[in-house]
Amino acid sequence: MKAAMYYEKANDTDVRCMLCPHGCFLKPGQTGICRARKNIEGELYSINYGKMTSLALDPIEKKPLVNFHPGSYILSAGSFGCNLKCSFCQNWRISQAESQSADMTPEALVEKAVGLLPRGNIGIAYTYNEPLIWYEFVRDCSLLAHENGLLNVLVTNGYIQKEPMEKLLPFVDAMNIDLKAFSSDFYKSICKGEIDFVMNTIRLCAEACHVEVTNLLIPGENDSEEEVSALSSWLAEVSQNITLHLTAYHPDYKMKKPGFMSRKRMFELINVAKKHLKNVYCGNMHILI
């Protein structure tokens, strides 16, 4: 646990978190939507600081990042919690539910990453759950990682206020940002968030580091040719260098329907996106029917 950044005191006992667009107003003992930031005796704390639920050396392509040091590996670290509530979440066991964790300091994580350099490791990826609600730990680790010649990668939903994102960006080398749909209604009803903030994060970060974007396609929800065309066209306006990953939905968490995306439909939509972007890839090929 560590004192949180980006909050304001409403009075002697209550606080408002200013890290993400939710702006949670918290009374003593209350925890934010993300489950990671808590009002303790009138001050806000990051309660997932140093709490590690997942740690693995992954291929960089698994993040997914295909045009950032391809063929390399990266030490991938995750905690718990998320500030969106996507009913189709495919990693809900650590993002939305209680999960076991182990304590780890920034120094220990960086030391482990350095020790893996002989195995092809290039740095640290903050991933699995939502890393931006792990803000203080990610910031401390990222600064220390750069001091040790390591690269930093964020795999994120991009749901953050501008100022904290700007302050973190100097320590970030690459990002995969999850743009869950190109519809305000989808974000509000299915993810419990607002798309404009994610779009702003993509614009901001594409100017500062390597950015790839993932769009999980759900049959009947966000997989129309019109929506995929609009999404990829907008990304092309932001930067032609952005890589787009179209990945296939499978039933999970609270969304048990619709069924699996078909291989045929995925390739149809990839061709739609390629009319606007030069780098478009298909993910979750192993679950396609």
Explain this structure:
This protein is an alpha/beta fold and 289 residues long. It has two domains: 2-46, no CATH class; 51-287, Alpha-Beta Barrel (TIM Barrel). It has helices at 92-95, 106-115, 135-147, 162-168, 184-191, 195-206, 225-238, 263-273, and strands at 2-3, 7-9, 15-17, 25-26, 37-40, 43-46, 51-52, 54-59, 73-78, 102-103, 121-126, 151-156, 174-178, 210-217, 243-248, 280-283. The strands form four sheets. The chain has an eight-stranded mixed β-sheet with strand order 8-9-11-12-13-14-15-16, covered by helices on one side. Helix 7 (225-238) runs parallel beside helix 8. It is globular and about 55 Å long.
